[in-house]
């Protein structure tokens, strides 16, 4: 018996769509290439799963989606973060709200989210099938079947592509959905990394590898327009290739015109102090260490790993006695600590990105139903679409809301 609905991909969007369609009385089959569904959900939020963002205003939600946010207007209206929260609490996962309205399971276990979705599917009679979709059979008007890697052809009334993006391919999301969408005649906007670590020009990054800075302010400047595209306080990390960590990932999603040296990061290492306060603080440290070499006088001000790099960049001789350092040299040091620059040369590869930007062109998809405007029984949901959001639980909210819309309308 062919099912009413065949869903390709048992991730966040696919499982939410399956539950919704099943609750509406549809027979549903979910095709998943992995042994277990929801592998990517399992690693979200460092294994804690920031499942949604408890913001209650539709406009705030849309504003967190820098590209094609308006496309999500209907899907979000029909399934707001509160609906996501109700869904998981009703399915046995108590939730808590943390800084920035980020919502997590009280257990801090992303696998509880996966289990809740999987159990809700099972209760709704959704049939899980293991296999990888490799071709969409299409007669130009309708999808007539899906061919799997094993050579089977699966048929249904309606088909949903919810195969995710291209990042973290070990989770199963390898970008297959783009090829399937193209087979149905859809345009795919070139997938690019977003929420991704950054490669940097300066060699000192590898020297600082492993150094994590907390409570710094990071400002990203577009050197062509001289505009600040991102500014926030938080945590970042130096790596062998450049920089990473929460602040950097967030900054990356604002760098929409990436090319080598287009963006410069300005890091304020001492955001709690004004230039004058920092200068006074340095004068005090230098006075207390009047006979010490400059390089040995920075221990109270900076993490150990950063000292040789700051000393070098400040242009003051490491062996200079602190009581010999001039006012101008000190001003240069203050400037360096308040504006420690890193020149970005590019994104890390898409495989290392948290989300994929680009995907199925949204003008070819009906925003109310997630139905293809080209093929009448084909739907899309989740990251396979050309929408991506900032950090904070918004990307999963997109998957749940679009999955819900597709599930209701199949
Ligand atoms: C490290 C990391 C941390 C993250 N943390 C968060 C977070 O805390 N909060 C947040 O909002 N977002 C987070 N995200 C982003 C979020 O996980 C994704 O945006 C979301 O999972 C997308 O859901 P999806 O259902 O579209 O795709 P996915 O969850 O990727 O699911 C797609 C599914 O389709 C399957 N599949 C793929 N191709 C085929 C095929 N050909 N045939 C059959 N099955 C196939 C895959 O195996 C997979 O199970 C994180 C992402 C990463 C990588």
Structural descriptors:
single chain, 410 residues, alpha+beta, FAD/NAD(P)-binding domain, 6-stranded antiparallel beta barrel, 5-stranded parallel sheet, 30% helix, binds flavin-adenine dinucleotide
Give the topology, please:
Blueprint lengths: L4 E4 L3 H12 L4 E5 L6 H5 L8 E2 L4 H6 L9 H6 L2 H10 L4 E4 L3 E4 L4 H14 L3 E4 L2 E6 L4 E6 L4 E2 L3 E4 L14 H8 L4 E7 L3 E3 L3 H4 L4 E11 L4 E12 L3 E3 L1 H7 L10 E6 L6 H14 L18 H8 L12 H12 L1 E8 L7 E6 L17 E3 L13 H16 L1
Parallel strand pairs: 1-2, 1-10, 2-6, 10-19
Antiparallel strand pairs: 3-5, 4-5, 7-8, 8-9, 11-18, 12-15, 12-17, 13-14, 13-16, 14-15, 16-17
Helix pairs in contact: 1-6, 1-13, 10-12, 11-12
The structure holds flavin-adenine dinucleotide.
The site of flavin-adenine dinucleotide (FAD) has 39 residues, from helix 1, strand 2, helix 2 and helix 13.
Textual characterization of the structure:
By secondary structure, this protein is of the alpha+beta class. It is built from 13 helices and 19 strands. Helix content is 30%, strand content 24%. A six-stranded antiparallel β-barrel has the order 12-15-14-13-16-17. A five-stranded parallel beta sheet has the order 6-2-1-10-19, with helices on both faces. A hairpin with a 4-residue loop joins strand 8 (143-148) and strand 9. Helix 10 crosses helix 12 (327-338) and helix 11 (307-314) packs across helix 12. The two termini are 17 Å apart. Flavin-adenine dinucleotide binds next to helix 1, strand 2, helix 2 and helix 13.
């Amino acid at each position: 018996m062919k099912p009413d609905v065949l869903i390709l991909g048992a991730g966040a969007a696919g499982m939410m769509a399956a539950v919704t369609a099943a609750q509406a009385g549809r027979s549903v089959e979910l095709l998943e290439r992995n042994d277990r569904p929801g592998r990517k959900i399992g690693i979200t939020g460092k294994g804690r799963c920031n499942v949604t963002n408890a913001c209650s205003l539709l406009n705030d939600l849309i504003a967190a989606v820098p590209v094609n946010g308006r496309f999500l207007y209907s899907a979000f209206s029909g399934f707001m973060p509160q609906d996501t929260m109700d869904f998981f609490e009703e399915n046995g996962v108590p939730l808590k709200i943390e800084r920035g309205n980020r919502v997590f399971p009280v257990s801090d276990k992303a696998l509880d989210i996966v289990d809740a979705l999987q159990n809700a599917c099972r209760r709704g009679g959704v049939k899980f099938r293991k296999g990888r979709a490799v071709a969409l059979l299409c007669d130009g008007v309708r999808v007539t079947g899906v061919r799997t890697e094993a050579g089977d052809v699966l048929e249904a009334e309606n088909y949903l592509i919810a195969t995710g993006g291209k990042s973290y391919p070990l989770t199963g999301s390898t970008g297959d959905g783009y090829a399937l969408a193209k087979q149905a005649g859809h345009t795919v906007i070139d997938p690019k990394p977003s929420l991704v670590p950054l490669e940097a020009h300066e060699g000192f990054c590898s020297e600082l590898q492993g150094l994590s800075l907390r409570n710094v302010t990071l400002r990203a400047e577009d050197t062509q327009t001289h505009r600040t595209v991102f500014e926030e306080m938080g945590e970042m990390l130096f790596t062998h290739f450049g920089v990473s960590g929460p602040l950097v990932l967030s900054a990356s999603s604002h760098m929409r015109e990436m090319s080598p040296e287009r963006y410069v990061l300005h890091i304020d290492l001492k955001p709690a102090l004004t230039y004058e306060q920092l200068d006074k603080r340095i004068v005090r440290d230098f006075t207390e260490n009047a006979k010490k070499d400059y390089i040995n006088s920075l221990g109270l001000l900076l993490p150990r790993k950063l000292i040789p790099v700051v000393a070098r960049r400040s242009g003051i001789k490491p062996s200079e006695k602190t009581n010999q350092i001039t006012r101008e040299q000190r001003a240069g040091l203050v400037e360096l600590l308040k504006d420690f620059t890193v020149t970005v040369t590019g994104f890390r590869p898409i495989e290392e990105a948290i989300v994929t930007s680009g995907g199925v062109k949204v003008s070819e998809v009906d925003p109310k139903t997630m139905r293809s405007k080209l093929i009448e029984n084909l739907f899309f949901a989740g990251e396979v679409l050309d929408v991506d959001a900032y950090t904070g639980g918004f990307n999963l909210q997109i998957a749940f809301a679009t999955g819900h819309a597709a599930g209701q309308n199949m």
